[in-house]
Structure formats: C-alpha cells, structure tokens
Design brief:
With 138 residues, this protein is mainly alpha-helical. It is 52% helix and 12% strand. Strands 1-2 form a two-stranded antiparallel sheet.
C-alpha cells in the first residue's frame, strides 16, 4: 500500500528531482525512493544527537548539528540550498520505505524533508551512479 507524504524542499532541489524524473521517464516518487535506497546505509552511519545536544525542550533540535555527513552537506549547500521559500512536493511511498524514512528522521531529530534532501545528495555523491543512474547537477 502506498501513502502520500508532503515534503518541503528548496526550489532548486525540486527542479533537480523533476529533471531526473523526466530523464529517467519515471515518477518523482520513484526517484526519491531510489535515492533513499542508495543513501540509507550512509544516513544510518550518522550519529544521533545526544539528549544534551537535543535539550529535550518543547521543540526538538532541528538546527544544523556537527554529526552531519560532510559530503552530503557540501552537495546540498553548493547545489540546492536556497533562501527562497520552500516548495511542497507530494510523494507516494510504500509502507516500508515511509516507515524507514520516518524512523530515521525521528532518530536523527530532523524533519522528514531533511532526510529526503540528504538522501538525494548522498545518492548524487561519488560512486552512487553505479547503483542509481542519477544525472550530475554540477
């Protein structure tokens, strides 16, 4: 069963996903699912914030933390970070992928959209082309 999920991403990243979907003649949902499949183990290698880092206040800590994967952050900053308002992208996910991504977002104390963005960047990273034929957005 598939579930629809709204993610909020930068306009540049939205354009990159749209271009990749058109290039592969696939849906944007399929492309994001493939990026997750490629990046999942690398995201799992990011250490979760400690209770002291997170503070356990009323609002979880979503600010940039020092445990982020440096290469994914560099790709994101160079290619997709945008000061403009975020765009809404509605994606369909199978139960298993949606559950995995939601659990990873909770573990890292990050929004679901952050997981989508970093998965895309990690999948675009060196060596990911063997697993997912993503266009380079250099």
């Amino acid at each position: 069963m598939k579930h629809e999920k709204a993610v909020y991403i930068s306009p540049k990243l939205l354009t990159a996903i749209q271009c990749e979907a058109a290039r592969l003649e696939r849906s944007m949902s399929w492309c994001v699912q493939q990026a997750w499949t490629v990046a999942r183990s690398r995201l799992a290698g990011i250490a979760a914030p400690t209770p002291l880092e997170q503070g356990f206040e009323a609002v979880p800590a979503f600010e940039p933390l020092p445990y982020s994967h440096a290469r994914a952050e560099a790709i994101y900053a160079a290619r997709f970070e945008d000061e403009e308002e975020r765009r809404v992208l509605r994606l369909a996910f199978p139960d298993t992928i949606l559950r995995d991504m939601t659990e990873e977002a909770a573990r890292l104390a990050r929004p679901f959209s952050w997981v989508v963005e970093r998965a895309w960047c990690l999948a675009s990273d060196e060596g990911a082309g063997d697993t997912m034929p993503m266009a380079r957005f250099d």
